[in-house]
């Protein structure tokens, strides 16, 4: 499955911050970060793997991935 990964530079945090908008139903919006864009992307992939593994273990459905043109609302 392919999920949306938003990576933005944060002046406040002085790092790249990652948001995974399809997973807003998770108690705390999953976010991660990295000092470089590449590190942020790697960390996002790890978080996604953990979310998929956790959903599989708990028997909960994963959110449907959005495609370009579908509305994504980021809290």
Give a quick set of tags describing it.
75 residues, alpha+beta, 19% strand
Description of the structure:
The protein contains one helix and three strands; from the N terminus they run βββα. The longest helix is centred in the middle third of the chain and has 22 residues, at 37-58. A three-stranded antiparallel beta sheet has the order 1-2-3, covered by helices on one side. It has one helix spanning 37-58, and strands spanning 6-10, 15-19, 31-34. It is 29% helix and 19% strand. It has one domain (6-58). The model has no long low-confidence stretch (mean pLDDT 87). 11% of the residues are buried. With 75 residues, the chain is α+β, with helices and mostly antiparallel strands.
In percent, how helical is the residue content? Answer: 25-40%
**Count of all domains:** 1
- Strand percentage: 15-25%
**What coarse outline follows from CA principal-axis ratios?**
globular
Number of strands: 3
Q: How many H/I helical runs? A: 1
Mean pLDDT across residues? 87
End-to-end separation = 22 Å
Largest sheet: 3 strands, antiparallel
Brief characterization of the structure:
The protein is of the alpha+beta class and 75 residues long.
Produce the secondary structure layout:
Blueprint (H helix, E strand, L loop, with lengths): L5 E5 L4 E5 L11 E4 L2 H22 L17
Antiparallel strand pairs: 1-2, 2-3
């Amino acid at each position: 499955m392919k999920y949306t990964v938003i990576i933005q530079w944060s002046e406040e945090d002085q790092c790249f911050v990652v948001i995974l908008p399809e997973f807003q139903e998770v108690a705390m919006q999953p976010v991660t970060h990295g000092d470089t864009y590449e590190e942020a992307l790697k960390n996002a992939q790890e978080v996604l793997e953990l979310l998929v593994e956790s959903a599989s273990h708990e028997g909960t459905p994963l959110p449907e991935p959005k495609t370009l043109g579908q509305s994504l609302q980021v809290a």
